[in-house]
Amino acid sequence: AFSISFLNKFKNYQYDIVIPLGGTWTYRLGIKLGGYIINIGQSGLVKNWIKYSNCFVALTQHDYNQCKTSCEIKTELIPNGIDINKFKIGTNKSNIITCIAALVEDKRHYLLLDAFLLLPDDTQLILIGSGPLENQIKNHKAFLTNRVTLKAVSFDEIPDILEKSSVFTLPSENEAFGIVFIEAMAS
Questions:
Q1: Which of 113, 140, 144, 141 is closest to 126 using CA atoms?
Q2: Which terminus of the chain has fewer CB atoms gathered within 10 Å of its CB, N or C?
Q3: Which of 90, 80, 82, 98 lies closest to 149, judged by CA?
Q4: Which helix (H) or strand (E) holds 7?
Q5: Backbone phi, then psi, for 56, in 5-degree steps?
Q6: pLDDT digits over 31-60, tens only?
Q7: End-to-end C-alpha distance for the chain, whole angstroms
């Protein structure tokens, strides 16, 4: 339904740049919408998508080298990472588990909340994020324990939250390049 409404809304527009992020169909759609197609290496070099692209932006040196040797398209390297100076390792960790993720189906918060109910009573869970599943997540029985916090915060607050956490988790089955994992490791 979303795809059909998207097509109807945008079919009369011409775009200068298209950055498809949803799979092969988004590249094909990008061709129909017109414009310069930029493939961003979120999942590394995916050769069946490259053929639809005018440019590849590699996030790692490995992907840059792979594209330069196997593809004949313009390739740029823009490393994906964090400023480790913004993060510090906490020394006074309590039993706090933190999950930072959009409140959407593929992040699988329901699995985390189910597992949380099996943990000792002195464990706390902090969910950082916002999204369309907020009300559904708030209605999970784990919230009845009064040990679960759900809030949206600014990026500037993330380092302090991670510093106070003893465990970081993200039960998503597929993460292309979760910067939040690097932030957690820096903490």
A1: 113
A2: N
A3: 98
A4: helix 2-10
A5: -120, 125
A6: 777 777 777 776 556 666 777 788 888 888
A7: 41
| Angle 100-175-65 from CA coordinates, rounded to 5° | 125
The model scores a pTM over 0.85: no
Share of the chain above pLDDT 70, in %: 83
Give 35: exposed, middle or buried? Use CB within 10 Å, 0-12, 13-18, 19+. Answer: middle
- The answer to whether 15 and 35 have CB atoms below 8 angstroms apart is yes
Contact, 121 vs 144, CB < 8 A?
A: no
DSSP state of 54: S
Residue with tokens 């097509």: 7
Confidence at residue 1, expressed as pLDDT on a 0 to 100 scale: 47
Strands 74-77 and 148-151: unpaired
Residue 102 in tokens: 């959009």
Which residues fall within 8 angstroms of residue 68, CB to CB, at 6 or more apart?
A: 75
Dump the DSSP string for 90-147. Answer: -SS--SEEEEE--SSGGG-HHHHHHHHTTS-TT-EEEEE--STTHHHHHTSGGGGGT-
